[in-house]
Amino acid sequence: MNRLIKRLTMVSAVLGLWALGASAYVVDESQQALIIRFGAPMSVAGEPGLKFKVPFSDSIVFYDRRLQTLASPAEQVILGDQKRIEVETYSRFRISDPLRFYQAVGTLEQANAQLTQMVSSSLRRELGEIPLRSLLSPARRQEVAIIEKDVADKALSLGIEVTEVRLHRADLPLEASQAIYDRMKSERQREAKELRAQGFEWAQQIQAKADRDRTVLLSEVQRQSAITHGEADAAANQILSAAFNKDPEFYKLYRSLQTYRQALAESQPMLVLTPDAQFLKQFQSGPVTTGER
What domain range is 76 assigned to? Predict the structure, then answer.
């Protein structure tokens, strides 16, 4: 009898420990738990710590309470001026109401799909009313804020709090970008040709002006040189005339000596002359003195 009681006690203790283990669960600081009883959500355990549930009937679904990032795929959007652009967005959100979240979408994958659709719909509606110029101006922030508010209001029904929606990239499609690049390249080439032609024309004008100024300057210099040379010749002639008139014999002697200097300096070491050569007159008779005159 005592052995039977001991066995029952041991079985009861094991069953108690198993039931305690089956009913206990831990909620982490980054999680929040939803208690589901027989498939129906009952309550939310939002505070971290050790929690208990009813074994067999209750199941726990954990949701991350931290911010989640959703990167939407690139999509083409037609703007208000009928231009096409490729837009990539990213959103940040958290699960604010696990019970509503479970009832509306159930899983994070379904929530991402629903949010992607909401962002795309709001993005197309808002950007479809503005031109490309507005998207490239500071007004872009205002448009993005409108999209963010619209998505946040709609996401509340899913138990989701959207904290941020931003444009990660907004570019023209590849074919449009290539066409714009080709047009810009052609325009720059045309401007380069015009600038080269204008530069060549300016160079021709500068060269012609330089040649004209050079001709005028040379003519003026040559004219002034001729005048100066003429004046110098006139002055030299006057000096020579005055010298000749003052003492003709001395002038003749001076000129003869100059002639000897030039002739003898340029001749060979030996100079052959006849004794009665006029060239040797000064050597034969010497200069005429005042008394001989």
Answer: 68-177
Structural Rg of the chain based on CA atoms:
57
| Pairing assessment for the beta strands 84-95 and 160-171 based on DSSP bridges | antiparallel
* Cα(261)–Cα(282) distance, integer angstroms: 13
Q: Is 69 exposed, middle or buried (0-12, 13-18, 19+ CB in 10 A)?
A: exposed
Q: What are 198's two structure tokens?
A: 């204008």
Whether 94 and 28 map to the same domain: the answer is: no
Indicate whether 118 pLDDT > 90.
Answer: yes
72-107 tens-digit pLDDT: 888 888 888 888 888 889 999 998 888 888 888 888
**Does residue 171 lie within any of the structural domains?**
yes
Counted domains in the chain:
2
Is there a domain that residue 34 lies in? yes
pLDDT digits (tens, 9 = 90+) for 244-257: 777 777 777 777 77
* CA separation for the pair 117, 123 (Å, rounded): 10
pLDDT given at position 149:
92
- Residues 192 and 34: their CA atoms lie apart, in Å, by 70
Domain assignment of residue 263, yes or no = no
Asked if residue 127 belongs to a domain, the reply is yes
CA atoms of 161 and 155, how far apart (whole Å):
7
